[in-house]
Design goal:
The complex is a heterodimer. Helices cover about 45% and strands about 20% of the residues of chain A. By secondary structure, chain A is of the alpha/beta class. Classes of the chains: A alpha/beta, B mainly alpha. Chain A: InterPro entries: P-loop_NTPase, Small_GTP-bd, Small_GTPase, Small_GTPase_Ras-type. Chain A: Belongs to the small GTPase superfamily. Ras family.
Chain lengths: ~210, ~800
Amino acid sequence: MAANKNKNQSSMALHKVIMVGSGGVGKSALTLQFMYDEFVEDYEPTKADSYRKKVVLDGDEFQIDILDTAGQEDYAAIRDNYFRSGEGFLLVFSITEYESFTATAELREQILRVKAEEDKIPLLVVGNKSDLEERRQVPVEEARSKAEEWGVQYVETSAKTRANVDKVFFDLMREIRAKKMSENKDKNGKKSGKNKKSFKERCCLL
Amino acid sequence: MSRSRQPPLVTGISPNEGISWTKVTIRGENLGTGPTDLIGLTICGHNCLLTAEWMSASKIVCRVGQAKNDKGDIIVTTKSGGRGTSTVSFKLLKPEKIGILDQSAVWVDEMNYYDTRTDRNKGIPPLSLRPANPLGIEIDKERHSVVLCGNFSYNLLAKDLEALFPGMSADFTSENFSAAWYLIENHSTTSFDQLKMAVMNLKKQANKKNEGSLAYVKGGLSTFFEAQDALSAIHQKLEADGTEKVEGSMTQKLENVLNRASNTADTLFQEVLGRKDKADSTRNALNVLQRFKFLFNLPLNIERNIQKGDYDVVINDYEKAKSLFGKTEVQVFKKYYAEIETRIEALRELLLNKLLETPSTLHDQKRYIRYLSDLHASGDPAWQCIGAQHKWILQLMHNCKESYVKDQKGNSLLHSPMLDLDSDVRPSPLGHLSQTASLKRGSSFQSGRDDTWRCKAPQQVAFVEKLTKLVVIQLPNFWKLWISYVNGSLFSEIDKAHRNDFKMIQEVMQSLAKLIRGALLPFSLREGELRQYGGWEMKSELSGQWLTHVIQTVRLSYESLTAFEIPNDMLHIIQDLILDLRVRCIMVTLQHTAEDVKRLAEKEDWVVDNEGLTSLPSQFEQCIVHSLQSLKSVLDCKPGEASVSLVIYFFFPCILSVDVSSPDLFGSIHEDSSLSSEQRLLIVLSNCCYLERHTFINIAEHFEKHSFQGVEKITQISMESLKELDQRLFEIYIELKADPIVGSLEPGIYAGYFDWKDCLVPTGKYLFNNCVIILTEILTVLPKIVTKVDAIGEGRGGLQRCRIVCLSRIMGGTGSVI
């Protein structure tokens, strides 16, 4: 039975998500909250953690594979390899630390550079630690305008309160799924243009 | 409950890769209901159950073991859920470090290895797994932030605590663990309720541990059985081996073995380390030797090169060593450098000796002087060399003289000393020097005649030849050396006092001149000098011929010396010598000629030829011509020599006086002859006439041929003296002849009672007859007496006139008698 299930799991569609952001912004906290509904208080710098679980997205079963990367600049050199395997990115910063917000631009550049051959990369800008409103340094408007500039969605989350945690992962998975479907269509036929548009509309609606 | 039935599922791993003994956090679902529920955990096929710590149903912390596979699943097995699955995998990285027991070709610093294992910051030791928070309650946030922010304030706190609990520690793994300190440090603000909870937690954990180990034993029951079996097997084996007979307990024996092993290891490593140290020091020494090989080898190299004669190399090396190590502070280098200095000092002495050693060539001398100046020898080697050379030349000259003098005093017939002297002269410097053509001529001239010459040549002549040859060969060298010294091309500083100091060359010249003078012109030297330079036995004067030869020799040497551009004021000495020699030669020759001429008289045989002459005039002519010929070369004026014509003027009257005196001799020896004195006088008269008319003209021609000046004057003087002689002779003759006539006349006069007053016509028949007899006598002896008489100026013409002349003379003579 286990083998059977295993088989099912492996045959299930897999979306690879990569957590990107400066050190200490809460990437691991978001991941663990999403994965196991728990909030880790003590801080231990991540090197590279892997998580994978089955999720139900809009009635369909998916597997989400989360690669929680190291935010520290010490590991900057190996980021390229991670980024290459990623299908969607959560670009996380802490609203209580302005430097982490400015760092997102650079990280996005790196992602775009690594995935230069792909026209649209599923990406969400995530402002974490929204529970610490009193220590906010990054204004919502600024972050939002920056996200609009990049043509991506901006969501504020709190790993502590679990606010918007599921939303960012699910929204990203949807984008990934939409992108994959459009690519499949591209491969299968030539009517991608219209479908793509409709998918996009739906993305926008959600 | 149904949930617990679900098999465990690992969905997360942190980190997803790492080396062995990496602490990993496994997250997932249904990871067991409690620590006891967890009965299996493998990562990449390695059982990690021993290190696993069950935190919750979704979290297990463990350490990755020495897995075989690089990448693999994490399989959790629980009692409640059975064997689980994994959605994530772990990648085992190869350890970068060389293990403690791995073989390695390089020296591994083990400190790093131990550091990683004992570093507290990176995690607690693998087997002492303790939760960071043993009380299970929240640690003071304040303290956390302090730790995060920095160590400064934390250190302050720690100091205070240390003062409060001396010798204790807040580390709960320490033996001196102080619970109070720990609580103050970590839970100073925690409420009492919280602390109560902590106590509960601790109790729970203690229970858990017990249960855990029990579960572990249960889980690995078979392993324990196996272990027990193995132990009993070992025990049996030990008993079988009779180990109990061995004295001491087994542990002691083991300890001994271990100690021995340790000792062996120590000795092994000591050996290895000792070898390494030795190798290091050897390498260092070799490096030093290699780097300063040049210096260390230098003394030997210097020795070798000195033996080979490569002084250039030695000097180069020395210069290099001097610049490199001249001011060194290193003891070894100092020592070696001192060694080198002593060797160079020895070399300097050697070179100086070689330089001062004679005979040597100019080339060698220059070379040695250059070496010495390159070696910064003290003093002025060039000047020393010049001095030595000078002394040597003088010595050589004196030796030459001494050997010849000895030779002369000893058996002068033996010529072996000359050969000795030959060997004394330096081998053949001629090859090195560009000898002038004249010098070559001179040498060939000398050598060409050597064999025949030497046998006959007097010692003085041979000596002069040898001496001049010596000087001509040696002096140019000396002069060149001098010139290059003055030019400054001898690399040594020129002493200004030496620059214009020609004393040495002058001295050489002087001694040359004096030696020759001592040999040939002893009277021209002062007494003291004579003792020094002379010493010749003056048995016999040298003949003019030999003197001419000597003059030629000296002239040749003079020529070759002028070719070396030796200043004139030095050559004046030689010139004076030559002049003196020439004068001397002329004098000797003339004296000889005079003596010869004198001796001619003795040879008179009074044989009259058909012209009424004896052989005497022609012999005289021959004599004069011969002496002229021998004088010719002497009288020749070489350029730069003072003319000696004045000498001729001075000396010719001498010859002529001899000429004049010679007929006197004719007269003085007439007694021995068979002929009458009258006849002899007539012959002499005839000879004189011939002399005047032929011989003098011939001689004058000869003089002209030999290009003497003032021939007319000489001729004139000689003519005058001849005339005077002729006159005297004639008068003597007339007197001689007149006396008998007057005697024969007188009786006649007195017989006839001749009175000058009444004497009418001379009845001179008898007288006439007598006169005729005399005339015939004259004519028989001298058919040409008439012409001779004519030449005297008594009138020309026939017999009559002669008669008249005779008569008138006779009459005059008679008259005077009367």
